[in-house]
Design goal:
Elements: E1 2-6, E2 9-13, H1 19-33, E3 37-41, H2 50-53, H3 57-65, E4 70-73, E5 87-89, H4 92-108
Parallel strand pairs: 2-3, 3-4, 4-5
Antiparallel strand pairs: 1-2
Length: 110
Protein backbone atom coordinates (compact mmCIF):
# COMPACT_ATOMS: atom_id res chain seq x y z
CA UNK A 1 0.00 0.00 0.00
CA UNK A 2 1.33 3.38 -0.97
CA UNK A 3 0.47 6.57 0.95
CA UNK A 4 1.11 9.86 -0.81
CA UNK A 5 0.62 12.73 1.63
CA UNK A 6 -0.06 16.28 0.43
CA UNK A 7 -0.68 18.65 3.36
CA UNK A 8 -3.82 17.31 5.08
CA UNK A 9 -4.77 14.90 2.28
CA UNK A 10 -3.48 11.35 1.92
CA UNK A 11 -3.85 9.60 -1.41
CA UNK A 12 -3.88 5.83 -1.04
CA UNK A 13 -3.18 3.38 -3.84
CA UNK A 14 -1.79 -0.07 -4.36
CA UNK A 15 -0.48 -1.82 -7.40
CA UNK A 16 -0.86 -5.52 -8.19
CA UNK A 17 -3.40 -6.42 -5.52
CA UNK A 18 -6.95 -7.62 -5.43
CA UNK A 19 -9.62 -5.33 -4.07
CA UNK A 20 -9.99 -7.60 -1.03
CA UNK A 21 -6.28 -7.29 -0.21
CA UNK A 22 -6.44 -3.54 -0.84
CA UNK A 23 -9.31 -3.19 1.67
CA UNK A 24 -7.48 -5.32 4.24
CA UNK A 25 -4.34 -3.20 3.87
CA UNK A 26 -6.38 0.00 4.10
CA UNK A 27 -8.09 -1.19 7.26
CA UNK A 28 -4.76 -2.20 8.79
CA UNK A 29 -3.10 1.11 7.86
CA UNK A 30 -6.06 3.33 8.73
CA UNK A 31 -4.65 4.44 12.10
CA UNK A 32 -1.72 6.10 10.29
CA UNK A 33 -3.97 8.25 8.11
CA UNK A 34 -7.18 8.69 10.11
CA UNK A 35 -6.49 12.37 10.82
CA UNK A 36 -6.17 13.28 7.13
CA UNK A 37 -8.71 13.59 4.37
CA UNK A 38 -8.40 10.40 2.33
CA UNK A 39 -8.47 9.87 -1.42
CA UNK A 40 -8.58 6.24 -2.52
CA UNK A 41 -7.05 5.93 -5.98
CA UNK A 42 -8.63 2.90 -7.66
CA UNK A 43 -7.15 3.41 -11.14
CA UNK A 44 -5.18 0.16 -10.86
CA UNK A 45 -8.52 -1.69 -10.84
CA UNK A 46 -9.67 -1.64 -14.44
CA UNK A 47 -12.72 -3.75 -13.67
CA UNK A 48 -14.62 -2.79 -10.56
CA UNK A 49 -18.33 -2.89 -9.81
CA UNK A 50 -20.57 -0.64 -7.77
CA UNK A 51 -21.06 -3.50 -5.30
CA UNK A 52 -17.30 -3.68 -4.81
CA UNK A 53 -17.24 0.07 -4.14
CA UNK A 54 -19.86 -0.47 -1.45
CA UNK A 55 -17.25 -2.47 0.47
CA UNK A 56 -15.66 0.91 1.29
CA UNK A 57 -18.88 2.16 2.90
CA UNK A 58 -18.02 1.24 6.51
CA UNK A 59 -14.61 2.91 6.50
CA UNK A 60 -16.05 5.88 4.59
CA UNK A 61 -18.82 6.36 7.17
CA UNK A 62 -16.35 6.06 10.05
CA UNK A 63 -14.08 8.65 8.47
CA UNK A 64 -16.89 11.07 7.68
CA UNK A 65 -18.20 10.85 11.26
CA UNK A 66 -14.78 12.13 12.31
CA UNK A 67 -15.42 15.23 10.13
CA UNK A 68 -12.93 14.16 7.46
CA UNK A 69 -13.48 13.59 3.75
CA UNK A 70 -13.19 10.18 2.10
CA UNK A 71 -13.30 10.06 -1.71
CA UNK A 72 -12.97 7.11 -4.09
CA UNK A 73 -11.38 7.84 -7.47
CA UNK A 74 -12.34 5.70 -10.42
CA UNK A 75 -13.64 6.28 -13.90
CA UNK A 76 -14.96 2.72 -14.23
CA UNK A 77 -18.09 3.23 -12.12
CA UNK A 78 -20.28 6.28 -12.57
CA UNK A 79 -21.11 8.68 -9.75
CA UNK A 80 -24.79 8.01 -10.48
CA UNK A 81 -24.39 4.27 -9.85
CA UNK A 82 -23.39 4.52 -6.18
CA UNK A 83 -25.31 5.83 -3.17
CA UNK A 84 -24.76 9.44 -2.21
CA UNK A 85 -23.20 8.27 1.06
CA UNK A 86 -20.05 7.43 -0.90
CA UNK A 87 -18.08 10.24 -2.51
CA UNK A 88 -16.70 9.28 -5.89
CA UNK A 89 -14.76 11.25 -8.49
CA UNK A 90 -13.29 10.38 -11.90
CA UNK A 91 -9.95 12.14 -11.26
CA UNK A 92 -7.63 12.99 -8.37
CA UNK A 93 -8.14 16.72 -9.00
CA UNK A 94 -11.91 16.36 -8.79
CA UNK A 95 -11.48 14.39 -5.55
CA UNK A 96 -9.45 17.28 -4.15
CA UNK A 97 -12.20 19.67 -5.26
CA UNK A 98 -14.79 17.56 -3.40
CA UNK A 99 -12.64 17.70 -0.27
CA UNK A 100 -12.37 21.48 -0.57
CA UNK A 101 -16.14 21.84 -0.95
CA UNK A 102 -16.78 19.51 2.00
CA UNK A 103 -14.37 21.54 4.16
CA UNK A 104 -16.27 24.71 3.29
CA UNK A 105 -19.56 23.00 4.16
CA UNK A 106 -18.16 21.86 7.52
CA UNK A 107 -16.87 25.38 8.24
CA UNK A 108 -20.32 26.79 7.48
CA UNK A 109 -22.04 24.10 9.53
CA UNK A 110 -23.91 22.67 6.56
Amino acid sequence: MIFDKDENITIVFQENATLKIFLENLTNGYEKIKNDHIIINLFSFTEITKNELLEFLDISNTHKKAKKSFVLVTDVVSYDDVPTTISIAPTIQEAKDIIEMEEIERDLGI
